[in-house]
């Protein structure tokens, strides 16, 4: 009876703690959305702020955030998934594996501001690129690689347990087994990790302050030259993202309604991060059901 009573008490305590966390999250979201009323207006989402003038928008910063997201994923996803395949299928227990895991754990614990300073020294100064979108994407990739590697390794290892030996027993090579059997089974978990990493990329600011810069040149979407500084698709131009812009508004206040714009931009940022998390859950579940035949 004492054991059952203790179990009920601690179960209720855990429910209370979980409820408090959920309530705190909802209160934070409601407060941010309340402070940023009007963030969904097209004039704000696609407008452009002018120095010293009120009523600006976040169009260039929003585009830079999505473009930074795409470029960073193109760099980090192949490396992260490839490293996960190597750790799950090709490595053996020993000193080399221990060194790799130590490096991954060390990289995952690095503060983003430290990664930003590393990016400033390597991707900005040593390459002579200056503050560019590519420098920011590379710095963000350094931040995301440990998490993507761990997610991919765990997903591949768990997916390979029931099917790996059967595939090899039928005469398939190791690479055929990985590419045709194991990876498709692990895609839902890997995709979930990628989408969650996308939310971090979209909301990152500290690492981008020192790599992508804090200026947003006026973008000319009609430009044909990708190397032009005014081309929106150029990788070698400064790219002020939405999170960096929020920090800049609160620290410099270069427009009369800086606080209002920052509140609205924060609401947009929170909504986008929530959508990334919801999309990870929904899409991962759908893909899992399509592979397992469940409905």
From TrEMBL:
Residues 62-280 form the ABC transmembrane type-1 domain. Its main location: membrane. InterPro entries: MetI-like, MetI-like_sf, Phosphate_PstA. GO terms for cellular component: plasma membrane. The keyword Ligase does not apply. It comes from the Bacteria. Keywords: Cell membrane, Membrane, Transmembrane, Transmembrane helix, Transport. It is a multi-pass membrane protein. The keyword Transferase does not apply. The chain crosses the membrane at residues 12-34, 66-87, 99-123, 261-280. CDD domains: TM_PBP2. One of its GO terms (molecular function) is phosphate transmembrane transporter activity. It is found in: Cell membrane. Belongs to the binding-protein-dependent transport system permease family. CysTW subfamily. This is Phosphate transport system permease protein PstA. It comes from Clostridium tyrobutyricum DIVETGP. The lineage of its organism: Bacteria, Bacillati, Bacillota, Clostridia, Eubacteriales.
